[in-house]
Amino acid sequence: MATENISMTKSTSRFVLTLRGIWKGLQELAELIFASPTAVIGLVVVLAWVFVAIFAPLITTYSPLEQDYKNINQKPTAAHVLGTDNLGRDVWTRVAYGARTILSLGPISVFVAFLIGLALGLPAGYYQGWVDELIMRILDALMAFPTILLYMIIISAVGASPFNVVIAIAIGGAPGIARLVRALTMDIRTREYVAAAKLRGDSDIMIMLREILPNSRGPLIVDFLLRIGYAAFYIGTLGFLGLGLPPPTPDWGGMVQEGHGRMSANIWPVLSATMAIVTLVIGLNMFADGLREESMRYQ
Amino acid sequence: MARYIVRRLLTMLLTMILVSMLVFAIVEIAPGNVARNILGAYATPEQEASMSRQLGLTRPVSIRYISWLFGSDWQAKGEIGLPMAQIISEQGLVKNAREWWAVAPNGEHLQWTVEEGKLYKLVLLADGNTEKILDESSWKAGEDGDEYFWGVDTANRAAKWVKGSKDIEYRLDYSGWVESTGAPVEYIPLSKGLIRGDAGVSLRYQAPVSEVIGRRILNSFILAALAIVVSIPTAVILGLIAGLNEGKLIDRIISIGGLITAGSPDFATGILLIMVFAIWLKVLPGAAVFTSADALWKNPNLLVLPVLTASLVEIGYVLRITRSSVVEVMNSPYVRTAILKGLTYRQVVTRHVLRNAMMAPITVIMLHVNWFIGGLVVVESVFGYPGLGSFILNAALFKDVYSIEAGAMVLILLAVGTQLIADLIYSLVNPRIRYS
User: Fold this and answer.
1) Buried b / exposed e along B160-180 (16+ C-beta atoms within 10 A)
2) Which positions of chain A have pLDDT values less than 50?
3) With CB atoms 3.0 to 4.6 Å apart as the test, which of A67, B164, B178, B317 could cross-link to B262 if both were Cys?
């Protein structure tokens, strides 16, 4: 009976990371999404922005850096659907290319944050004891920082660039992820299939990556999606504070920063970029929130 | 309970020590070092090396960290053999500049300088001027045959001069670069340290950071207090209305409103409010720039938009939590029982629903302190409001390292302290919590 159990868990757990496993995961995810109207609305908004980002060159007629000194600070016209900014750049084009910036940096930084969070959370939860104590104390200290303050001092120390923005957001997000991973690991390590893996002599790293990680994927996926919303939120905010991507990169936060001193002369660049970031962040939040509520109902 | 408080205070202390290490590490060890930040991109390598020595950046990291936190005057005292005194000078270009002097056993305040290879002693006179006296007899014999002297120089540093040294000291003065030969070989920049209230001189304001920061903290506190007073009651009332009318039109309106205000980045909310109230309706100022220290009292209108912005985000967040908590309580068996036993709707709401539903928002507000403080930083930057947050942002943009360090430490201390107080209040409010 016991041996049967072990061999069964062995055969299933080995294949969790295969294509079939991923397909099954996606199916579960789709079911969750369509059970929640909030998530569906959010997803539609997000997908609309993803579409704009991917097809930016096809749905715009200018280049995002192209300046036209004869047509500065224009109101929306047929030629410039959202007007032009103070350098005569087409606002719609910059918004569309700005979607690329935020939608690529957001997921990348959350991904990096997850790598750091997993690297800290898995051993902390698995080994416990002093490893756990040490890691958690450092994470507590990092979490004592108001997030935006942490970003401000990191960016001021290393300079504003896409790479540094990703690093800053990853460092800011990693403690929360590590805590979640640690809690999940502490729960899962007591399961029988982990005991079975130990019995057959798997190394600790193997157990963490093959047994614990795949079995904690549900909450981690939801957390990942939720964090993309936060990342977009903070990338926009950093851009606005002048700590994001250096100009002239098309970046929504940066567009608001550049234009907000001249709003009484030309409101269009600021209004467009603000509405873009608001809709994207709220869309991402609705999607992740709806998903979380639905998945909690399942559990 | 007392044990719990002590334990929390100890954890807080440990956290703050780790935080101070992190802040110091990020700001000072990161690439693009402090000397270069001060000098800009056009300094020569010799100038940069000299500046690094003068700022004490060539000293070991651990000693610099300790000096930053606990000061360096006691280290200098060990080298010089005389106690140090910090006095506030009325003279000079910098207002209320703090000057360091060594105090001789006879009570004289002393500084030293080396000119053309000769050591001079500067004695502070009662009128604030100094008397320059040749002090060649003070050279001490070093181990390798050199003659050296430890003293306080004229720029608030303990310095070790070696007799006959041809080193050049480069100093950035108001007029530009100043060179002087016979430079000290070692410097200890003097300060009392952050914990003793000396956070160094702001590179941007050319004034002690501790003096600049005080008023900023007060301004931030006013903004935060007003935002909390406005947002929490509003949010709770709206959340209650929405929760009691679950599924009706009013609930939908409030919930969607909450979703939008809670989700929007603070700067976007602020910008949209400026567009509506300052540019379109022209009824409120779009920036909170203080022309004088008491501008806030003369023109309270300055505060309306910053407070509204900081509140809206918080309102959205708290009302959503309150709403879902009320909905949950309304569907609970004890509320059904209360209704069935014939209590009026009003009695059920005030006696059962309110009390039980308030626990969730209080918990969330508590967990939310850091987020709220982060939001204030952004709101202050949107409106140019002269608070602690915009101070740190400007320091970060200007690479004013001492201001960043001090500002960050103060802000985190406030955040951690608020969190602790919130925890304690929570434990008093919620009788279900037990501390072991």
Assistant:
1) bbbbebeeebbeeeeeeeeee
2) 1-16
3) B317
Q: What is the pLDDT of residues B153-173, one digit of tens each?
A: 888 888 888 887 777 777 766
Candidates A296, A278, A252, A269; CA nearest to A87 is A269
Confidence of residue B174 (pLDDT cuts 50, 70, 90): low
- Provide the 10 A C-beta neighbour count for residue A224: 17
Q: How confident is the model at residue B51 (pLDDT cuts 50, 70, 90)?
A: confident
Taking CB atoms and an 8 Å limit, are B396 and A155 in contact across chains?
Answer: yes
| Average pLDDT value for chain B | 83
Rounded Cα distance, A283 and A288, in Å: 9
Local structure of residue B200 (DSSP, 8 states): -
Burial A183-204 (b: 16+ CB within 10 A, else e): ebbbebbeeebbebbeeeebee
Residues of B within 8 A of A241 (CB-CB) are 267, 378, 381, 393
With pLDDT > 70 as the criterion, what percentage of chain B qualifies?
A: 91
- With contacts defined as CB-CB under 8 Å, which chain B residues touch A242? 397
Helix, strand, coil tally for chain B in percent (to 5): 60, 15, 25
What helix, strand, coil percent values describe chain A, rounded to 5? 75, 0, 20
Q: Which of B14, B259, B264, B410 has the highest number of chain A CBs within 10 A, making it the mutation to test binding with A?
A: B264
How is residue B28 written in tokens?
Answer: 């000072």
Neighbours of B326 (CB within 10 A): 27
Would you tell me which CATH number, out of the four given (3.30.470.20, 3.40.50.11890, 3.30.70.100, 1.10.3720.10), belongs to the domain A43-296? 1.10.3720.10
Pairwise CB contact (< 8 Å): A156 & B411: no
CB contact under 8 A, A146 and B412: yes
d(CA A20, CA A25): 8
> Closest to B416 (Cβ–Cβ): which among A144, A157, A277?
A144
Q: How many angstroms separate the Cα of B114 from the Cα of each of B49, B52, B151, B274?
A: 20, 20, 11, 58
What residues contact residue A241 under an 8 Å CB cut-off, 6+ apart? A152, A253, A257, B267, B378, B381, B393
Kindly state whether A154 is in contact with chain B, defined as any CB-CB distance less than 8 angstroms: yes
| Beta-carbon contacts of residue B402 (< 8 Å; ≥ 6 apart) | B199, B200, B201, B202, B203, B209
Contacts of A142 in chain B (CB under 8 A): 22
Domains in chain B and their CATH numbers? 44-198 (no CATH), 210-429 (1.10.3720.10)
The length of chain B in residues reads 436
Residue A101 CA to residue B410 CA, distance in Å, equals 34
As a residue count, chain A comes to 299
Mutate to test the interface with B, among A153, A238, A243 (most CBs of B within 10 A): A153
Task: State mean pLDDT over B33-53.
Answer: 74
pLDDT digits (tens, 9 = 90+) for B245-280: 888 899 989 988 998 898 889 999 999 999 898 888
pLDDT band at B431 (very low <50, low <70, confident <90, very high): low
Mean pLDDT of B180-193: 82
Please state which of the ranges B236-240, B286-290, B406-410, B421-425 shows the lowest mean pLDDT: B286-290
What angle is formed at CA B169 by the lines to CA B168 and CA B173, rounded to 5 degrees?
140
Please report which confidence band the pLDDT of residue B352 belongs to, taking 50, 70 and 90 as the band edges.
Answer: confident
Q: Which residues pair with B151 in a beta bridge?
A: B159
Predicted confidence at residue A9, as pLDDT, reads 43
Reduce the DSSP state of residue B98 to 3 states and report it. Answer: strand
Least confident of A121-135, B100-114, B361-375: B361-375
**What pLDDT is recorded for position A120?**
93
- List phi, psi (to 5°) of B409: -65, -45
Strands B130-134 and B97-103: unpaired
pTM (global) more than 0.90? no
